[in-house]
Amino acid sequence: HVQLVESGGGSVQAGGSLRLSCAASGYTRRSYCMGWFRQAPGKEREGVAGISAAGGTKVYADSVKGRFTISRDSAKNTVYLQMNSLKPEDTAVYYCVSGTNDWGQGTQVTV
Asked: How confident is the model at residue 28 (pLDDT cuts 50, 70, 90)?
């Protein structure tokens, strides 16, 4: 299994920015595709962004395209989610997930 720890959440005003980090440990001898999901109160968990193992392919939910950017630093076993122009509807707990279907504990983002 891969252990994932998210950080970087917090409270920010609308229009502000945050950068989330997801540090992986454990079985990291190979790279996996990684993704970010979020879950708002009373709503189902939804996919936000994903990145391929090599980092060459990135996908985004329509609701965050042009505002969020996913990236990875393989040397640090870390995946990032840069979130700009944040909106109140971005308020949620954000989770990191690996291609092994391991999940982090989540980090709260409040706009």
From this structure: low
- The identity of residue 17, as a single letter, is S
Q: Which token pair is 73?
A: 């630093």
Q: Which pLDDT belongs to residue 29?
A: 65
Nearest to 90 by CA among 81, 99, 80: 81
Residue pLDDT, tens place only, 51-85? 999 889 999 999 999 999 999 998 899 999 999 99
What does DSSP assign to residue 88? G
Cβ neighbours for 6, distance < 8 A, ≥ 6 positions apart: 20, 21, 22, 94, 95, 96, 104, 105, 106, 107
Distances in Å between the Cα of 47 and the Cα atoms of 7, 94, 100 are 18, 10, 16
How far apart, in Å, do the first and last CA atoms of the chain sit? 33
Distance CA 8, CA 49 (A): 16
